[in-house]
Amino acid sequence: MTVASPTAEGKAILFTAGGVRLALRLSQVREILAVDERASEVLVRGEAIPALPVAVALGLPATPARFALVTESTPASALKVDAVHGIVDLSSTEVFQLPARTLLPQPPPFQGALVSHGDVALELAVSTLGWVPIEPALERGEPPPQLDFPTGRELLFTRAGRTYAVPIQLLARVLDAPRVFPVPLAPAAHRGVLYHERAIHPVFDLAVFFGCAAGPDAGSTDKAHAVKQGHGGTALLVDAGGIAVAVLADRILHAGEQASGEVARPSWDLLFA
Could you give phi then psi for residue 159, rounded to 5 degrees? Predict the structure, then answer.
């Protein structure tokens, strides 16, 4: 299928690689081909073009890649992907920059995100891809700071067996069973992004910040499982320095319910600085 045309400037193609939803401006794509998942190159008008598995380049689990997106770059490249979901008109699609607190390798492999029918797709930066998998962004090294002054009204919640507190004045929203879309190559504590009220927010797992095992309903921090979409628990939208971030929770404690063990009261502004 040949796609280059004057109308390609205002469209994007949606696809999946390594289980992650991605997007590419149609103006960057010359052709879309069905290929053998074992093929190491594709033949385009008599020219053999190396076929780069996008999942491998992004450090994701290798998956059957049955399509190739032949790019308009020089030299041309063929990006092997799992599935192609269709083409969207950017005039009717929400386009976002990734949240400022989404830490990625530099240069970043994604230049933004598109939201179509509630699904978030990361817009791929083709020039950053290569045959060597990109190294993920590093975790923060120091432990998260905690408050050392008297607390006021707060909401208590649990995550991976530990209880945390967030001041009520910082709590923007409680979201049940949110859909979390993974962001490859972000640190393990960054679980992905979620879309809510025409905005996307970074999603974090406090269990990883505090050196605990992740809760079972958020997926493993292992790369082989980190691409699972969705979450069976709860996300709290918290105002951290004027920017809303989401933190995962297993359970919210009822009013008057006593926490079992010590309660962690992180400095929310500094934690996500």
Answer: -150, 120
In the chain, how many domains are there? 2
Fill in the amino acid letter for 233: G
My answer on whether 163 and 254 are in the same domain is yes
Which runs of E-coded beta strand occur in the chain?
A: 11-17, 20-25, 29-34, 41-44, 47-53, 67-71, 78-81, 83-89, 94-96, 110-116, 119-124, 154-159, 162-167, 171-176, 190-196, 199-204, 234-240, 243-249, 251-252, 263-264
d(CA 145, CA 206): 12
| pLDDT digits 0-9 by tens, 177-198 | 999 999 999 999 999 999 999 9
**Residue 254: CB partners within 8 Å, gap ≥ 6?**
none
* Nearest one of 81, 75, 24 to 47, comparing CA atoms: 75
Collect all residues with Cβ–Cβ distance below 8 Å to 129 and sequence separation of at least 6: 52, 54, 57, 58, 77, 79, 109
Q: How far is CA 93 from the centre of its chain?
A: 18
SS3 208: helix
Within 13 A of 228's CA, how many CA atoms are on the CB side?
A: 14
59: containing domain: 6-128
Q: Is residue 148 part of a domain?
A: no
This prediction's pTM: 0.86
